[in-house]
Design a protein that fits this description.
The protein is an alpha+beta fold. It is built from 7 helices and 5 strands, in the order H-H-H-E-E-H-H-H-E-E-H-E. The protein has 2 domains: 47 residues, Ubiquitin-associated (UBA) domain (Helicase, Ruva Protein, domain 3); 92 residues, Elongation factor Ts, dimerisation domain (Tetrahydropterin Synthase, Chain A, 2-Layer Sandwich), CATH 3.30.479.20. Helices cover 50% and strands 22% of the residues. Helix 3 packs across helix 7 and helix 5 packs antiparallel against helix 7. The mean pLDDT is 85.
Length: 157
């Protein structure tokens, strides 16, 4: 077994924002390799996120993003389990990113929206972005509604 230094744990913790014990466990499982440990934590987080999917998400917020000098707007209702989480910077940032996504790429349905490649990282879908947030935040997160508005463009009913 490789001896894990406190410095490596700190480094992994800064990189991933995971707990100290989780970082130690990940480093032990990957023989001290930082990149492998980060991937191990991400996979563990995805597993934990899957367990939260069925939970009721009745709190949340509505976020807007306006682009092109007021010509295009994206609006997202993002739900979580508690109002405490809805007030966190991490949750607000996710809501803002999703509103920006809606403004950039209109989707005909919520399912299509979740399958879209994320505008900041096309290797990742919106569903994966949300799962990562669920793993970090520790609550179920659901997109309630999403709408894109553009000047001169009628929305289908």
């Amino acid at each position: 077994m490789v001896k894990i230094s406190l410095q490596k744990i700190k480094q992994l913790r800064l990189q991933t924002k995971a707990g100290v014990m989780d970082c130690r466990q990940a480093l032990e499982a990957t023989d001290g390799a930082l990149s492998k440990a980060a991937e191990w934590l991400r996979q563990k987080g995805m597993t934990a996120a899957g367990k939260r999917v069925g939970r009721r998400a009745s709190a949340g917020l509505i976020e807007t993003y306006i682009h092109h000098q007021g010509q295009v707007a994206g609006v997202v209702e993002l739900n979580c389990e508690t109002d405490f989480v809805a007030r966190t910077d991490e949750f607000k940032k996710l809501a803002h990113e999703l509103a920006m996504q809606v403004a950039a790429m209109d989707a005909p349905s919520p399912v299509a929206f979740l399958k879209q490649p994320y505008i900041r990282d096309p290797q990742k879908t919106i569903a994966e972005l949300i799962k990562e947030a669920i793993a970090k935040i520790g609550e179920n997160i659901v997109v309630g509604q999403a709408a894109r508005f553009a000047v001169g463009q009628k929305r289908p009913k």
